[in-house]
Design goal:
The protein is an alpha/beta fold. Helices cover 39% and strands 18% of the residues. It has a single domain, classed as Rossmann fold (3-Layer(aba) Sandwich). It is globular, with a radius of gyration of 17 Å. It starts with a helix and ends with a strand.
Length: 254
């Protein structure tokens, strides 16, 4: 049965296609995404299970498949570059069948993230991973997100958001809420999921790229120079990191 999400949310489809086009044209931003994709690939390959599949959620605006052909791309919107169309709150995969579930700037758009976590716990193989790159909650990030970004960033918000629009409704602080503010609740609720790490990073690269709404401030060939400078500032990432990488692993059921 055909999904109607592309009909119900025409603005989301248009914006997603716009994002995809921007990623093709903006060399600096594209290089940042390639780095992120490669990180997700390498961490997924750490999972020993050889049979599990690698699933990307919210693939519509990206180009992960161009970097790693084995990934199963997916989105809630029916788009020509996704393999599967479904709501992330109900994954159409059997128990213990996924090696990893990866996403970039998607978790904070999911209306009821706790349902995705339940589904991940069910569908991941033992040792499988949830890997996500999301907005961080550093001092610098709060300053940027609350003053210069259109999406809300509410660290005191609820654990779910409205489901009206997949792309435009969000709370960028949802990763912080689930895996930092309410970490004890996460640990007690998902007995087979353990938070392995939260790594803050990328204080300036995204801003200098102009993101998806501003012109790039630097040409693509300057990307490696900026990344080198960010490497020198790594000890301060907890205060200045604009993004965070969250790694969650499914452990053996006790």
């Amino acid at each position: 049965m055909e999904k109607k999400s592309d009909i119900l949310y025409p603005e989301d489809v248009a914006e997603t296609l716009k994002h995809r086009d921007i990623l093709k044209k903006k060399s600096f931003l594209r290089k940042l995404y390639i780095d992120w994709y490669n990180y997700l690939i390498n961490k997924s390959k750490e999972v020993e299970n050889k049979e599990g599949k690698i699933l990307e959620i919210g693939s519509g605006g990206g180009f992960f498949k161009e970097i790693f052909s084995e990934v199963i791309t997916s989105d809630i919107l029916k788009l020509d570059n996704v393999d599967e169309v479904f709501n992330a709150e109900q994954l159409p995969f059997s128990d213990n069948s996924l090696k990893s579930i990866v996403m970039i700037n998607v978790f904070h758009h999911i209306p009821r993230p706790y349902l995705l976590l339940e589904e991940a716990q069910r569908s991941l193989v033992e040792g499988g991973k949830i890997l996500m790159i999301e907005p961080a909650n550093s001092s610098f990030a709060r300053f940027i997100y609350t003053r210069f970004h259109s999406e809300p960033f509410d660290v005191n918000g609820e654990r779910e958001i409205k489901a009206d629009s997949p792309l435009f409704n969000s709370n960028q602080a949802l990763p912080y809420i689930y895996f930092e503010r309410d970490l004890p609740r996460f640990q007690s609720t998902y007995k087979q999921l353990t938070l392995k790490s939260i790594h803050y990073h990328t204080p300036f690269s995204y801003l200098l790229s102009g993101g998806f709404s501003k012109p790039s401030l630097l040409p693509g060939f300057m990307y490696s120079t900026v990344k080198f400078a960010e490497g020198l500032l790594r000890p301060f990432n907890r205060k200045i990191g604009l993004f965070c990488t969250i790694e969650i692993e499914k452990i053996k059921n006790i």
